[in-house]
């Protein structure tokens, strides 16, 4: 009992410290690292409550993938510069935010810590956590029978998310003139046109240099005629 | 009271949620705002797992499973959007994007 | 087989056929068609009349509902017809006299370029009038009421190329409208009080209406009747309505439309029985109108205007009767008046046609030599209206006066006023007869007085000049009609004289429907009894006989006085024909001054109020909404963080609600 309490308090301190770090620190990289600390703490709490599979998933997916993504974007965009903390452009945002936060916290604590508070939900009869069965088995059983529809939908969701991300981060190519592509044109022809357009873009500096040399000749001709006149 | 029952976890989750909420409202850097959203999601996950243990129902953990999947997908798309917008101008933050103004 | 619906629908059919093919039917085809339709309607009325006679007296009413017109929740109005003794009686003389006047018009309007249009309007008028009397609820009656008003307007300004005629039509319509306002308010009040506007529902519910409400309803409907039946103060339109063709004057402004007010009051007699002093208002208005109009008629030179004021005066008699709750006498006088007034108007039309559209009596004289049939029938009409027994006018007028005599403390005063009016009626009608049919042939004199009446010096707005001009030029035609000194008048076509003869016969024998010699002879009273809640009792027989003799004496006195002045020339006519009477007590001029001066300012004020306050309020709402929108627009700043703040504040409020309100 003592060990559990001690574990809990320590982990809670880590979580809270990490959360405060996410909110209060200035450098985005520091914020990301604080987030990692919080996620680890939450994973420990999962283990303490018997959700072993979820704890593993938390570390692998959240801390291992999502925060890495964050760090990639931070590096890519160079937003490691600190944002301006002294100015708050929206009038009354900060006080109102603090007030809302205090309200939410206070009300939640009132609800949770009031004397008559108790967990009121009905204990499940069908999906009871059986102490004998491993956690992952129980979870898998529920996922693939009761919630299989949601499971499949989430796979679709992930596909859509990937496609969306790819589309969003594409660079815009040269505009396609539809007149060049009447119906029935093969994909190869389109591909060739695309590559030709790209090559033109790349060869532009040489073309510019060629143009510059051509520009000199009219002046030369003018000199010749002037001399001829004299 | 000093026994470790579910109330402790719920209180902790509430605190993490509040800190995440205040952070979302206060910070201007879009990436940090996103991280605060992740904080809130984690607080909710903790709450779900706590209730799953208290009510002896595995469904709570299944929900957390789905929440994590959705959070991952959301982060992917959200960061893609942020990249697409922030690429244009350096040093932009959430307050510069106000095209939806009435 | 319920044929009631045919009664108004046949003239309506006539209207539609004339609308589509009137021009093709032409002169006189359109006229024969219109007359035939009305005659067919008359035959249907006779059939329904006999159907009613076959029923026992208490059940004497037939109804026919065609379809529901307005099914709006609890307010349900259907197109339904109520054929009870009162309405069938009205239909009888409306269609009968209507058919006769249609026949007359074939001859009168011959050669007019708008021949078929005249019959078109006449048929529509008859359809509306029949709808008015046959409707089984107030809204249908109002529909017919408005219809006859419209047709009156169309027919008065039939020769509208002369602006005076158009003005007369407008005047009639506008004055009627003031009355219609009263009708509408009365209908609303009945609806609110009784919950239904069907006559069948009003009758049982009437005793339970509070006295004050019943008085208000009665007065409101009486306002409508005042407008439609040209009583004071809304009598100004009827003399000017003589600008229309003479058959119109005969049909609409003598026999039918103007009696709609009397019909309305009679139809609502259950409410009138509760209305207390409203009945006195009606009786006194009728009496005073009769007096004033008769005094004006003495001094008129246009034959149609004399008859017009005479109509106003006789309508006053009818209202005197219904005001003293002597409904049988009122209806009786309505019927006999229809006979002899139509006769007089048609006769005057015959005279006017013979004299090439000349209407000034100062150019007539000795026409009995040239127009024998017209003369004979006109004389009969003259005797009837003067109240000489045994013609119809005597019986009905006597009953009205007798009923007024014992109608309460002011009864004898009312009776005396009625007696004075009878004296004046006899006087001016004899004057007309003498000037028109006797004496020297004044049109042969080259220095005959010009007919134009000098407008009094009333300056101000054009409204005034137009009103006065209409009052002066009411004959509707130009001054000089080709009435040369060697013009020989000729008797009219048989289509015009046949109706005269028929109406003359009716004027002689029409009194038989309600002779006061005992209940066996009082056919009308027994006939109307089921429709009346209360009928005023006449004085006992000895008093009746005395009153009758007084009436006869007064009539003879009037005839003799006119003979003394106009035939024997013992007293100069100018002493009696005062200018104030000739100018109708300057009523028109007073109205014009009031409406033109302070009235117009008041109306302008109301219009300004509407423009600034009402429109301002409506526009202000729009402007206010726009301003509010502009103020609220900055809330949508496009900034994500302020939106997030809103969401979190909402979430905190929700949480507060849950924590405080729900038992945890």
Report on the structure:
The complex is a heterotrimer of chains A (230), B (102) and C (664). Chain A has 230 residues and is mainly α. Among the domains of chain A are: 1-82, Four Helix Bundle (Hemerythrin (Met), subunit A); 178-229, no CATH class. Chain A contains eight helices and no strands. Chain B is mostly helical. Chain B is 74% helix and 0% strand. The longest helix of chain B has 28 residues, at 59-86. The termini of chain B are far apart. Chain C has a two-stranded antiparallel ribbon with strand order 1-2. Chain C starts with 5 loop residues before the first helix and ends with a helix. The chains are: A mainly alpha (230), B mainly alpha (102), C mainly alpha (664). At the A-B interface, helix 1, helix 2, helix 3, helix 4 and helix 5 of A face helix 1, helix 2 and helix 3 of B.
Structure summary:
The complex is a heterotrimer of chains A (230), B (102) and C (664). By secondary structure, chain B is an all-alpha fold.
Distinctive features:
heterotrimer, A: 230 residues, mainly alpha, Four Helix Bundle (Hemerythrin (Met), subunit A), 8 helices, 72% helix, 0% strand, extended, C: 664 residues, two-stranded antiparallel ribbon, 2 strands, 69% helix
